[in-house]
Amino acid sequence: MAIMGETLHSLLVGLVCFALGMLLLELYKLAWRVDSRGYKLPPGSTGLPLIGETISFFRGINSTDQPRRYIQEREKRYGEIFRSNLFGRSRIVVSVNPEFNKHVLQHEGRQFQANYPKPLRNLIGKFGLLAVHGDLQKKLHGTAVNLLRFERLSVDFMTDIQNLLHTTLPKWQAKRDIHLQEECHQLVLNLMAKQLMDLSPSKETEEICEAFGHFSEALLAIPLRIPGTAYARGFKAREFLIKRIYEGIEDRRKHPQVVRNDLLTKLLKEDSFSEELIADFILFLLFAGHETSSRSMSFAIKFLTDCPKAYQELKAEHDALLQRKGNRRNGNLTWDDYQSMKFTQCIINETLRLGNFAPGAFREAKEDVKTKGGFVIPKGWTVYVFLTGTHLDEKYHSSALTFNPWRWQQLLQDQELSKNPSFMPFGGGARLCPGMHLAKLELALFLHNFVTKFRWEALQDEKISYFPFPRLIKGLPIRLHPQERLGD
Ligand code: HEM
């Protein structure tokens, strides 16, 4: 009898626990579905408690054949703007709707403001541009735009990029077999280090490049600052990089007579900027202008490897340019030469569409925002403007996973591109990337030098992964052969 009583008791306790669990789950779902203020929230699903749909999201973009799977499944059920539970945020709305994305980005500082995950903000520092708002953001954004203005691009950057390419590419040729992704990483870092801190390629810039590898890896690592974790390594890298910048500041203060044409020197003349702000600002520019551009270079070569027709047309454009320049292969191109590269612009756009290193933007609603269908995104909720989700969408780009640079020809001719919200690789509004013209210039000059100096063969099969950011899984191992000289 006693045993039966105990069994009955355990059964009852089990049933009560089960009922309580179900009740809590229902309450959680209810609280999630209807905001406490009774708003009609955009439709969506919670996924699992706490981790929500993060795993499905990453599993989706990790699929090389169907990187849009996660979006497609939800879009079918809920539409292009849907609620989710991602990246540890249970109050998040994902948007792949081009018009709404444009609206969100254009209302920065009013209806919305940038709100990147805390681990990222900790790494870029409190004055990293994506972490600041209001007047300070406007001022720093203006400083970045000024640094990268047309007069500097068409003279200083144009010369520096080409000088760097003329000294770096022969080194690649001497090695013959290279991992292009890694080499481009160092190439772009050398350029940014020169422009920002007047550093020439050296052991020091190699160390800085290596530290950036750890820094970038930490951005998506589990934010545990325990020795040995990727996140802790990222912080060590940050400390190392900030120290290098402070040394640069000290050097300039001690030797004011040395003439330098770099951004660090210019920033030190601004009385209103503290050294802490300058250091974070320089670090952010190095970060923002580095991995983004270098990835697009190796992606462009990957796409050209797989599309011989595009390669032939690109090469013809650059051979013709070279011929017009009297076949001087290490001669410098001018701004007009750059602007004449029409097909190159198509290659650049298509590369940015398929392999953009900046997949999306995080924003927080500063007020309740109404969307189509009478839904409301309440104040304080996050909106993830998923740019890659739109760039790979069949509705806006036919055969979206196919590299087809010709799709841009008409749009570029009609100058319709800037009006097209389904293609915004550089974001928009008050945070529109100040480096966009530099990135395109770097890529064009790189392509000119690469296709006129080399033929190449892929050494292994290569695939793109969109997880955690777009990358070439094996780093694009290739063998270089010198290109026959024109007329040889
Ligand atoms: C292919 C190359 C690049 C891509 C795809 C890219 C993309 C982007 C995007 C999408 C944003 C907007 C982020 C947001 O709204 O939250 C952004 C912001 C920014 N980018 Fe770029 N970028 C590239 C290259 C560069 C370069 C070369 C630089 C400078 C050296 C640069 C500097 C910045 C800065 C400073 C911001 C922050 C602007 C602000 O918050 O006010 N980027 N970039």
UniProtKB/TrEMBL annotation:
GO biological process, any: brassinosteroid homeostasis
Keyword terms of this UniProt record: Heme, Iron, Membrane, Metal-binding, Monooxygenase, Oxidoreductase, Transmembrane, Transmembrane helix
Keyword Metal-binding annotated: yes
Family: Belongs to the cytochrome P450 family.
Positions bound to heme: C433
Record's signal peptide: none
Cofactor: heme
Protein name according to UniProt: CYP720PB12
Entry's Gene Ontology molecular function annotations: heme binding; iron ion binding; monooxygenase activity; oxidoreductase activity, acting on paired donors, with incorporation or reduction of molecular oxygen
Residues passing through the membrane, by range: 12-31
Keyword Acyltransferase: no
